[in-house]
Amino acid sequence: MRIFDPHIHMTSRTTDDYERMASAGVRAVVEPAFWLGQPRTSVGSFTDYFDSLVGWEPFRAGQFGVRHHATVALNPKEANDPRCRPVLDVLPRYLEKDGVVAVGEIGYDSMTPEEDEVFAVQLALAVAHDLPALVHTPHRDKARGVERSLAVVTECGIAPGRVVLDHLNEVTVTLVRDSGCWMGFSIYPDTKMSPPRMVELLREHGTERMLVNSAADWGRSDPLLTRATGEAMLLAGFTDDDVDRVLWRNPVEFYGQSGRLDLTELDLAAVDPETGSSILRGGT
């Protein structure tokens, strides 16, 4: 089983996670820029973070045979903080980086006027830089948030096939399916979506434009739940080809629209003879 996790926050995971993921069949990931967990106080903290996403993190992943890509954006939660808004001026520099395959995460947290403005600006950046867009749907009042997100997508003129709305559920999937946008589902231990629920959604809606991710981060989450979903699909009667489409070919098709996916073979980790570490040290 080959797996491409289209939404996972590896900056907050350990090298042990990379090792376990590689053993489970994860060969590629996309890491979206997201909230730190506490307020950022300056644009500098964003630029350091973005530099890590396009520099150190791909190197770290490569030691385990995992190809790492990123998306960059001002995330919805911090769109409300005036200290963070100037990051919009530095985003174009990062949107030209080879490893950046989309603008994201963008969208809504609390559906404020500030979030409306930042969402529209960043969709325009996606169009200007010929990149897909990864849209975060709010955890509260999700149905209204999805409706509002789809309205902004329409108003901005970006092609729906270049947009994925993530963190969907049974209530919101039909809205997004009918819009022509891609549908993203985050498999979590307790919240969001579970493998059995995901299997039922795939039975009902098919495998087209479906993306399954772990969205693993610094909270309670599991980077192997993509694998668990594939196994649940097989037990439910889906074919190996169905699983490959959902867990590999669909994310390749969506992010491949950036023209920047690099899925060439990588060597597995080797021990650094100088440090004894299972991860080699990056240069400057």
From TrEMBL:
Keyword Hydrolase present in the record's keywords: the answer is yes
- For this protein, what is any one GO molecular function term? hydrolase activity, acting on ester bonds
Q: Entry's Pfam families?
A: TatD_DNase
Per UniProt, which keywords does this protein have?
Hydrolase, Metal-binding
Family, according to the entry, reads as follows: Belongs to the metallo-dependent hydrolases superfamily.
Per its UniProt record, what PANTHER family does this chain match? HYDROLASE TATD
Protein name, UniProt field: TatD DNase family protein
